[in-house]
Amino acid sequence: MSLNVLLLDNVDPVCAEVFKERNIHADQRPKIELDELKKIIGKYEAIVLRSGTTVDEELLSHAENLRIIGRAGVGVDNIDIPAATSKGVLVMNTPDGNTISTAEHTCGMIIALARNIPQSVDRVKSGGWDRKKFMGTEVHSKTLGIVGLGKIGTEVALRMKQFGMDLLAYDPFTTQDHAKEIGVELVELDDLLGRSDFLTVHTPLTEKTKNMISLDVADKLKPGIRLVNCARGGIYKEEDLVPLIEKGIVAGAALDVYTTEPPTKELYETLKNPSIICTPHLGASTEEAQEKVAVQIASQISDALENKNYKGSLNSKSISLLTNDEVQPYVELAEKLGKVSGQIMPDNANNFSFEYTGICTKYSEVLTDAILKGMLSQYVSESVNLINARHYALERGFKLSETNKSDDKNYNDLITIKLGDSSEYKQISAAVFGPGDYRIVEIDGFGIELRLEGDILMYQNLDKPGMLAAVSSTLAKQDINIGALSLGREGKGSNAITAVIVDRQLNNEELDSIYKLDGVSNVKYISLS
Ligand SMILES: NC(=O)C1=CN([C@@H]2O[C@H](COP(=O)(O)OP(=O)(O)OC[C@H]3O[C@@H](n4cnc5c(N)ncnc54)[C@H](O)[C@@H]3O)[C@@H](O)[C@H]2O)C=CC1
Ligand SMILES: O=C(O)CCC(=O)C(=O)O
């Protein structure tokens, strides 16, 4: 049977050559209207795209023969992965083919920003000169703050070190060992913002990174800071950039990515500001990167179509597990537990041990993948899934260990996670209580029972009368309702732990009001909503 692949979005022509060598027919359609795409997609087993095509449920409903969606690049934010998974369509990407190109583009943007290169080129080309106006700044001995020390952030650090820059990074999901190895000082975000002359971000766009720089943090920024974004539009709040420049807080910004691409009319107005320089999402646009990702994705898709291997796949284990009723509840439990652990673990933790009891021992490998998926999905740019979660964890230098325990005195089937570094550890256990009913049963040696759902406020307190009343009245004053609660203690009058499910998300001010209560410590807020 002949196999057909559709190449969209200016994917490098070498992609078609690789398919041809594998006897797979490839049609190249760099520009195609959505209506026409819907008409023809049905005859293809695979499609390859960059960021120009959005694959949603509606488009997938026309793709009756589709087996694979291949992203020639990293970000898969333009593909509805849950919709593809439920249709049994594999989604693949090429996570490292464009790392070097994007890092080089970022370094170019840092220098261009420091020396006003684009603005002065414009001036000379339009017949001007103005040497005084374009006085720049050296990057040597200046501090570069890097948010996100993953693949691209690391390559930027290595290159800018050679320019003589001092390097700081904030990345709660990297290790001290990795930072030390590349000569970067790991610091807290506020510290980094207050010390950086240049800031570059290399994270995915998530709830945590969205609007990381805005007028709200103006007083935390070192005056005269220069901002670079070659990651995802929206990490810097676009509408706040000009006000930050006009207030003299930000000296300039270099942008490669935007919340809407191409930018909206309003955004184009922002980009006209003379202190802002910009490129049209060119980070990965080099011959080398495009060739690498095109060859990689064509080889990966050919192997998968021939059922040889599923390298680069983001959802293949999830597809086979969708049909296994026995393991499914434990995979869900493990993923939720991973999400909780990712939010309570000490910063820069690198030791993770997983203990399984009962039926969980049978599926320990996939359950560890699910825990790591839950933890990492909050921090990693590629869509983390059961296939790639372990790879990303190991790449980050995490030390993982798994043990199986024959029984537990209270629970038949239990998962326990211990995580931390040499100075601080957290331990948390959870079990399945019924369909969709997953509960934490122990935290740091305190027995509790709390459903893994919604928004959870957790804290330690002295075991004395009035503590719960103090917390609940503080919450009530802020119109925050408690949905459920669980208490655990070491013994009468000693330390206790309290976990409450609140009816809505808490903001920093509301959390502060709990931190400030006498006798309350170690306050953590966990969102599973
Ligand atoms: N401009 C362009 O053409 C390109 C842009 N990209 C984008 O660059 C970004 C980085 O890509 P990679 O380095 O390949 O990803 P990566 O997954 O290797 O690194 C991302 C890093 O961000 C960290 N991180 C996540 N959330 C964080 C948070 N809240 N605070 C601090 N650190 C956090 C993670 O721990 C991880 O180390 C992605 O958004 C990707 O889509 C990638 C390629 C080309
Ligand atoms: O295909 C492109 O040029 C976009 C690259 C990118 O942003 C990515 O790989 O995440």
From TrEMBL:
Keywords, ordered alphabetically: Amino-acid biosynthesis, NAD, Oxidoreductase, Serine biosynthesis
Pathway: Amino-acid biosynthesis; L-serine biosynthesis; L-serine from 3-phospho-D-glycerate: step 1/3
SUPFAM superfamilies associated with the record: ACT-like, Formate/glycerate dehydrogenase catalytic domain-like, NAD(P)-binding Rossmann-fold domains, Serine metabolism enzymes domain
Positions of the ACT domain: 456-529
PROSITE patterns: ACT, D_2_HYDROXYACID_DH_1, D_2_HYDROXYACID_DH_2
Main enzyme class: oxidoreductase
InterPro entries, per database record: ACT-like_dom_sf, ACT_dom, ASB_dom_sf, D-2-hydroxyacid_DH, D-isomer_2_OHA_DH_cat_dom, D-isomer_DH_CS, D-isomer_DH_CS1, D-isomer_DH_NAD-bd
Keyword Amino-acid biosynthesis applies: yes
Coiled-coil region list: none
Catalytic reactions on record: (R)-2-hydroxyglutarate + NAD(+) = 2-oxoglutarate + NADH + H(+); (2R)-3-phosphoglycerate + NAD(+) = 3-phosphooxypyruvate + NADH + H(+)
The keyword NAD appears for this protein: yes
The enzyme's E.C. designation: 1.1.1.95
Record GO terms (molecular function): phosphoglycerate dehydrogenase activity
Role of this protein: Catalyzes the reversible oxidation of 3-phospho-D-glycerate to 3-phosphonooxypyruvate, the first step of the phosphorylated L-serine biosynthesis pathway. Also catalyzes the reversible oxidation of 2-hydroxyglutarate to 2-oxoglutarate.
Record family assignment: Belongs to the D-isomer specific 2-hydroxyacid dehydrogenase family.
Name the record gives this protein: D-3-phosphoglycerate dehydrogenase
Organism: Rhodohalobacter sulfatireducens
Gene name linked to the record: serA
